[in-house]
């Protein structure tokens, strides 16, 4: 198998800002915290950074001015979804376009706006409207006209306003086809909360029972409030370097084994294999570039904007068969910290908070470095990371 | 909602070159779906090129309005002011009978929750949501 270019990249540093709900900390302050932490963690100075990439609320030029480094040119990978800047950074260092690229994602409570990527044509992923009060902005133009790209307009027209609605229909179809139960979704949420207890930055750490889960306020059947991730403020940054820097890293470098992405055909509701999503194509892409198999993976940090998304990723990545994600997570033993496949070890977006896929990446790096403290999975060498759902999906295989 | 409070305006579709036929059809109470005039496949959402044969000869055609229920969700949280006084409502992905996996995103009305079931036969109904907006929704088929 020829080496994929991403194998020439490492993650040399990671950083996370203060995290919380309604913190009143500015985007720039959050970004500065995570970026400076990541650069220092990589053993670098800001002037070593020759590429800055993001999809988010703090423009790279702001970081260049306030933190340092050069914006440089990092082309987004169009199939990467929210991982587009990460994948772009991998390729930039592999191509020799940059030596050290700072990548960050900064979000505020409402999810954070998503800037059009400068070097690619990936669309902004849809995001939920958190409340009716806020619904006047974002996806609508003047006079309440629906003015969003592609297939989203019809969804909005019929009152399907949130990804919660769209994914609830996927979840319902999964339940209908495979007998998946609400309690099985709950097993995932409860497992995440159990893990969050070991993560001092997680926003919800108090124990959650299955009764708590089942009794949560309904949002869009079968989803209740505890099937949905928790909006937070925060920022996560990583430094991507070329593999040659691995020997000089002060911390264990995290190696990139493979990446996969997809902007799947069929949008939200026209895939012939519905309720499968772009995740299935992204996962196939990922496995096509490595000799490793799902059995080699020690920990899985899989996107959980909604519980069902993680189920979809478990199946897409081949940790279980099609339709088998419910039994796979049942009772939470297999996916617990001591189980066969520890899942969302930091608490996931469901309990730790919504960082649009960057906390899964941060946690995978911590685990592979052996620095995850009380929640450390002994001997973790291979991590799967996934982000996205619906028509946009990206995933990574990282190793120690 | 309180009767003194004016109802919020609905989010209005903005027809463009690709979707004008659809909304013209709705105005006539006809469900129209884009169809490739070369190979006969229906295509939804409307596109400029047929993905089956790459023909550009595409046109909106009236379909039967018959469908089966593919999936659904009962929306209990409104995400837009227009829908605040309409929750709960049943959002649905329906499969039009004209072609396998020809999905249509809509709502199911006149159906108790316990009767929602995969494969449920449905028919289109044109519902005036407000003075400005009529939508093709689906209800259990009557015959
Ligand atoms: Zn055709």
Key traits:
heterodimer; A: 400 residues; alpha+beta; 8-stranded mixed β-sheet; 12 helices; 10 strands; 29% helix; B: 143 residues; mainly beta; 5-stranded antiparallel β-sheet; 3-stranded antiparallel β-sheet; 8 strands; 6% helix; 36% strand; globular; disordered N terminus; binds zinc ion
Describe the 3D structure.
- The complex is a heterodimer of chains A (400) and B (143).
- Chain A has twelve helices and ten strands.
- With 400 residues, chain A is of the alpha+beta class.
- In chain A, the strands form two sheets. Chain A has an eight-stranded mixed β-sheet, with helices on both faces.
- In chain A, a hairpin with a 2-residue loop joins strand 9 (382-389) and strand 10.
- In chain A, helix 6 (182-196) packs across helix 9 (307-316) and helix 8 runs parallel beside helix 9.
- The two termini of chain A are 20 Å apart.
- The relative contact order of chain A is 0.18.
- Chain B has 143 residues and is mainly beta.
- Helix content of chain B is 6%, strand content 36%.
- Chain B has one helix and eight strands, in the order H-E-E-E-E-E-E-E-E.
- In chain B, strands 6-5-4-7-8 form a five-stranded antiparallel β-sheet, with no helix packed on it. A three-stranded antiparallel β-sheet of chain B has the order 2-1-3.
- The longest helix of chain B is centred in the N-terminal third of the chain and has 8 residues, at 20-27.
- The model of chain B is unreliable at 1-5 (pLDDT under 50).
- The chains are: A alpha+beta (400), B mainly beta (143).
- The interface between A and B is large, with 50 and 39 residues.
- Residues 36, 38-39, 41, 50, 52-53, 55 of chain B line the site of zinc ion.
Summarize the structure.
The complex is a heterodimer of chains A (400) and B (143). Chain A is of the alpha+beta class and 400 residues long.
């Amino acid at each position: 198998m020829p080496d994929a270019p991403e194998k020439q990249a490492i993650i040399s540093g990671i950083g996370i800002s203060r995290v919380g709900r309604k913190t009143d900390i500015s985007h720039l302050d959050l970004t500065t915290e995570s970026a400076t932490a990541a650069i220092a963690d990589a053993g670098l100075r800001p002037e070593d950074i020759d590429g800055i990439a993001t999809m988010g609320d703090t423009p790279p030029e702001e970081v260049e001015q306030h933190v340092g480094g050069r914006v440089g040119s990092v082309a987004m990978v169009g199939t990467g979804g929210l991982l587009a800047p990460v994948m772009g950074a991998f390729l930039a260092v592999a191509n020799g376009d940059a030596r050290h690229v700072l990548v960050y994602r900064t979000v505020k409570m409402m999810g954070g706006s998503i800037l059009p990527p400068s070097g690619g044509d990936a669309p902004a992923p849809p995001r939920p409207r958190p409340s009716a009060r806020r619904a006047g902005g974002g996806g609508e133009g003047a006079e309440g006209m629906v003015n969003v790209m592609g297939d989203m307009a019809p969804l909005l027209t019929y009152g399907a306003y949130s990804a919660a609605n769209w994914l609830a229909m996927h979840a319902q179809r999964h339940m209908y086809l495979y007998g998946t139960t609400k309690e099985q979704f709950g097993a995932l949420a409860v497992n995440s909360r159990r893990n969050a207890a070991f993560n001092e930055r997680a926003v919800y750490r108090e124990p959650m029972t299955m009764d708590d889960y089942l009794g949560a306020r309904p949002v869009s059947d079968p989803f209740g409030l505890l099937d949905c991730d928790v909006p937070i403020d925060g920022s996560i940054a990583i430094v991507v370097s070329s593999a040659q820097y691995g020997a000089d890293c002060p911390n264990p470098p995290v190696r990139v084994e493979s990446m996969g992405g997809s902007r799947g055909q069929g949008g939200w509701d026209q895939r012939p294999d519905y309720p499968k999503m772009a995740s299935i194509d992204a996962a196939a892409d990922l496995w096509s570039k490595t000799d490793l198999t799902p059995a080699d993976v020690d920990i899985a940090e899989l996107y959980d904007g909604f519980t069902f998304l993680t189920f979809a990723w478990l199946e897409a990545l081949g940790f279980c068969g099609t339709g088998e994600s419910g039994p796979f997570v049942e009772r939470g033993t297999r996916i617990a910290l001591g189980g066969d496949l520890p899942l969302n070890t930091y608490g996931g977006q469901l309990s730790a908070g919504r960082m649009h896929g960057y906390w899964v990446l941060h946690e995978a790096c911590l685990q592979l470095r052996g620095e995850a403290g009380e929640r450390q999975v002994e001997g973790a060498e291979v991590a799967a990371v996934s982000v996205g759902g619906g028509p946009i999906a990206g995933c990574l295989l990282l190793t120690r | 909602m309180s009767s003194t409070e004016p109802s919020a305006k609905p989010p209005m579709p903005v027809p463009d070159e690709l979707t004008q036929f659809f909304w013209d059809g709705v105005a006539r109470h006809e469900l129209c779906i884009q169809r490739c005039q070369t190979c006969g496949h229906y295509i939804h959402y409307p596109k400029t090129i047929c993905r089956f044969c790459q023909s550009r000869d595409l046109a909106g055609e009236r379909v039967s309005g018959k469908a089966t229920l593919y999936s659904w969700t009962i929306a209990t949280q409104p995400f837009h002011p227009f829908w605040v006084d309409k929750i709960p409502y049943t959002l649905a992905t329906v499969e039009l009978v004209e072609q396998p996996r020809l999905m249509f995103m809509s709502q199911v009305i006149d159906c108790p929750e316990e009767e929602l079931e995969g494969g449920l036969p449905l028919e289109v109904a044109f519902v005036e949501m407000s003075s400005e907006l009529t939508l093709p929704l689906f209800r259990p088929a009557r015959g």
